[in-house]
Write a structure and sequence with these properties.
Blueprint: E1 2-6, E2 11-16, E3 27-31, E4 34-38, H1 41-57, E5 67-76, H2 83-90, H3 102-112, E6 124-134, E7 138-145, E8 148-152
Helix pairs in contact: 1-3
Length: 153
């Protein structure tokens, strides 16, 4: 019988000073006899910026195997807020419950990091995400490579 147990894992922690952009529905255009789907420009720009920033910050090869990802999204605080509400949002006492949805932030971000931190986001087997307000919009990513070691018993 074989039993699996964890061994040391590679962990990557990166902060991107880029305001998160949610994945929007793809746009379509006619292409010959077919239809071509593409991301709206703000989403494409975000993914490109994220990919380039990750490529600059992380010089290693994409991680392989199963991954655990923690992502925190810090969206800008609206300028129309009162000082009191601004302070509450900045300290995390008030969290974003309006659109865009957290899952749309996740989709655009994970897609944007394909080929840099991991080969494909289908390698992610565990995901922990949070959405906050901040005066410094950014995306924080932590990726842990889950290595398994086979042992005989």
């Amino acid at each position: 019988m074989q039993q699996t147990s964890s061994t040391e894992a590679t962990v990557i922690k990166l902060t991107f000073d880029i305001a998160p952009v949610a994945q929007a529905r793809p746009r379509a255009t006619r292409f010959g006899k077919g239809i071509r789907l593409y991301d709206p420009k703000p989403v494409r720009t975000y993914k490109d910026q994220l990919w380039l920033a990750a490529r600059t910050a992380y010089e290693g090869d994409p991680l392989e195997g199963p991954l655990k990802v923690t992502a925190r999204f810090y969206r800008p605080i609206q300028t129309s807020e009162s000082k009191k509400r601004h302070r509450l949002k900045a300290t995390g006492a008030i969290r974003p419950t309006k659109k865009p949805d957290l899952d749309n932030y996740i989709k655009s971000t994970l897609d944007g990091l394909n080929g840099v931190l991991w080969g494909d986001d289908n390698q992610i087997v565990e995901l922990n995400t949070k959405k906050y307000y901040s005066d410094k919009p950014r995306v924080e990513i932590e990726v842990e490579e889950l290595k398994l070691k086979l042992t005989k018993q």
